[in-house]
Amino acid sequence: MEDLQELIETGLLELYVLGDTNEQDNLLIEKIGAANPQLWAEVDAIGLALEKYALDNGIVSNPIILPFLMATIDFSDRMQAGETPVIAPILHEGAVAADYQQFLERKDMIMPDNFKDVFARILSYTPEAITAIVWISQMAPQEVHDHEYERFLILEGTCDIHIEEDIFHLVPGDYLQIPLHKSHHVMVTSKIPCKVILQRVAA
């Protein structure tokens, strides 16, 4: 499949926006998108249509979904505008904020004044990992990941990450990986939003 219209008709772009495509589909979409910039405009339109549908139908969604949908649209717009992709390092036990300094120094990687719940900016995307800067104002709701490891590096503020019965008290510089198949949620414990490098790595 090399044709943009044929790809649109498959419904894969809707799944891509929702984060439900596999690695092979992602590679296909990115290959066609490299030759057809219109694809990213279609991705943006789908994202906005899904958001409008949710608002019009009064759907109460997971507060994580919309910030990451908007971050995905923003990332697509940046790539379409010619931003040179830079692959962020994989988070690990010895990772430090300085490993991400080139991203943290960017003037567009800032927290808005009036965000609610969660705000995210994607740093890089590969089939292996998606990396973002995320600000959490009070909490991030319960989630379970079956196909990806979620990793945190705390930059500012403090939080408690609850993994089922265990509670991890995190401060700037701390790293934590969420195990697969484990229910978890985040509670901010500082007066300021908790700013983290968040990475989801394919299992």
UniProtKB/TrEMBL annotation:
Domain Cupin type-2, chain residue ranges per copy: 139-197
Pfam families: Cupin_2 (PF07883)
Classification via InterPro entries: Cupin_2, RmlC-like_jellyroll, RmlC_Cupin_sf
Gene3D superfamilies given in the database record: Jelly Rolls
Protein name per the record: Cupin domain-containing protein
The species this protein was found in: Pedobacter metabolipauper
